[in-house]
């Protein structure tokens, strides 16, 4: 998925929705499953001379921890790209704490980015594509990225299309994400709190931390992400229009085929009472609305005891990190994947969750696509952009595992946004995986079902004004309610609903329902 800061929740309408018991057969997947073929061809497919060009790249990633090593890395990488494709890359690091605004500013600036991170939901891919922020790639892909073009099935290219045109290049890995509650297991044991197997156990844990650990806050998530990442697994609803990390404005009820707005589901208001109760009990700070912290990092640095916004299996190594950095202090992490507390399901991943787009005024789209195509065929080069420099940032063990245990201090690799180039065939197991990795993956694989809305793209062209207005209403009235920071839940909810209705909620819902009906009919 994304770099660490891209986990922050975006404040948009109905910051939560649910996937549920979809009537689909379960299929086994792994953390890196995909349909990509296993062949690896290190040829760009081009002969003759290529004029030298410098590609400009923009992605969401904090600046490197070690600028000297990063400088050497980019010099080495560009030396290779210059030799093999007569190109180099100039990468602009976009600080992640305010990635939404940074990204919008980058696009509005008119800078000629040849390689630009793009994604549905958290980076508003569909919206920017429909506004011509990106260059259509339909005619360029077969010629300049033939390997990727042939490798990905038509259904994937359809999922990457907006208004019938392709604006982004998907990755070669579906992946999967199981949102989880991450917490200090050592503190649970210290205060003899119950093992966490349900939301009720989470409540008991947070209260135990509040009562017994004065120097640490129970949780510290950006805008209090509790609502957006926990209750979603307690209903059968399926999310429709992803806003951010499987958080939705509208949901589909597979029991009767209805399309509902999040705020009008009975579960929404009922959960608001719990959010109010938890906020009043001090389970998070009253300043969470202005926070830009990813709560997981607050756990890792000792500020908080728990976060509701961990993502597995992608960040399972946080447990190993805590053991390495704080094991002598007795620290220990554990995870509770929300689906474990309810006989529910985990939706399969998507190759479009991270993509690469080309800005509409980019000067070198052809070379940019050539680079993408070349990387996805060349395992050695892919290793470099994904794991760094062997012997400096990692060591490759005899069994093909990426080992970072013996690298120098400050040599952890974070110089390149490799999620834009994910490839299941090249991906390698990391030696710092959680000790319970296999057990975790078995639990996930046993619950995976297909996402019936995989590839669905909501066309907002006829409702864009209303949809934007609903997002503004949520920022002003929804998020404080969802964080429990209101004096009266009933009054706050009623005000929120009234404002949403006035902003065009009914019109938007009707349009969403129309498009969903057409989509589902096309799949029969």
UniProtKB/TrEMBL annotation:
A Pfam family assignment? SBP_bac_8
Which stretch is the leader sequence? 1-23
Name the InterPro entries on file. Answer: Bact_solute-bd_prot1, DUF3502, SBP
Q: Which UniProt keywords apply?
A: Signal
Output the superkingdom of the source species: Bacteria
Xref: PROSITE patterns: PROKAR_LIPOPROTEIN
Q: Which residues form the DUF3502 domain?
A: 454-521
Q: What is this protein called?
A: DUF3502 domain-containing protein
Q: Which organism is it from?
A: Cohnella abietis
């Amino acid at each position: 998925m994304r770099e660490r800061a891209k986990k922050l929740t975006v404040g948009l309408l109905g910051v939560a929705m649910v996937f549920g018991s979809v009537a689909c057969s379960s299929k086994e997947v792994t953390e890196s499953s995909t349909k990509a073929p296993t062949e690896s061809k290190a040829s760009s497919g081009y002969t003759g001379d290529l004029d030298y060009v410098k590609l400009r790249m923009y992605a969401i990633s904090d600046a490197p921890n070690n600028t000297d090593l990063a400088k050497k890395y980019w010099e080495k990488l560009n030396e290779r790209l210059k030799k093999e494709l007569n190109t180099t890359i100039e990468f602009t690091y976009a600080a992640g704490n305010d990635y939404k605004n940074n990204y919008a500013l980058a696009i509005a600036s008119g800078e000629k980015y040849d390689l630009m991170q793009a994604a549905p939901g958290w980076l508003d891919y569909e919206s920017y594509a429909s506004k011509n922020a990106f260059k259509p790639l339909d005619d360029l892909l077969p010629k300049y990225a033939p390997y990727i073009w042939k490798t990905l099935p038509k259904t994937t290219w359809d999922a990457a299309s907006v208004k019938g045109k392709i604006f982004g290049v998907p990755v070669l890995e579906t992946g999967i994400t199981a949102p989880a509650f991450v917490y200090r297991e050592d503190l649970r044991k210290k205060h003899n709190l119950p093992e966490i197997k349900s939301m009720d156990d989470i409540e008991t844990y947070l209260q135990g931390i509040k009562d017994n650990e004065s120097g640490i806050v129970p949780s510290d998530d950006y805008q209090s992400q509790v609502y957006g990442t926990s209750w979603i697994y307690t209903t059968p609803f399926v999310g429709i229009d992803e806003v951010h990390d499987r958080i939705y404005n509208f949901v589909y009820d597979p029991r009767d085929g209805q399309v509902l707005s999040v705020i009008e589901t009975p579960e929404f208001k009922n959960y608001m009472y719990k959010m109010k109760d938890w906020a009043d009990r001090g389970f998070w700070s009253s300043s969470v609305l202005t926070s830009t912290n990813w709560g997981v990092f607050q756990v890792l640095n000792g500020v908080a005891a728990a976060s509701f916004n961990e993502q597995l299996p992608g960040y399972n190594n946080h447990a190993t990190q805590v053991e390495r950095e704080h094991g002598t202090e007795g620290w220990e992490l554990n995870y509770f994947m929300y689906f474990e507390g309810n006989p529910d399901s985990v939706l399969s991943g998507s190759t479009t969750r991270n993509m690469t787009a080309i800005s509409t005024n980019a000067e070198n789209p052809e070379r940019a696509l050539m680079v993408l195509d070349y990387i996805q065929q060349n395992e050695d080069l892919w290793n470099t952009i994904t794991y760094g420099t062997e012997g400096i940032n990692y060591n490759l063990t005899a069994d093909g595992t990426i080992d970072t245990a013996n690298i120098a201090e400050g040599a952890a690799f974070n110089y390149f946004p490799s999620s834009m180039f994910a490839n299941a065939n090249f991906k390698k197991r990391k030696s710092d995986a959680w000790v319970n990795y296999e057990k975790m993956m078995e639990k996930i694989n046993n619950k995976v079902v297909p996402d019936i809305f995989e590839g669905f793209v909501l066309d907002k062209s006829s409702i864009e004004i209303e949809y934007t207005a609903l997002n503004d209403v949520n920022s002003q009235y929804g998020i404080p309610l969802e964080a429990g920071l209101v004096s009266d839940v009933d009054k706050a909810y009623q005000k929120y609903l009234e404002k949403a209705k006035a902003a065009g909620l009914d019109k938007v819902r009707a349009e969403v329902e129309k498009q969903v009906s057409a989509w589902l009919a096309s799949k029969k």
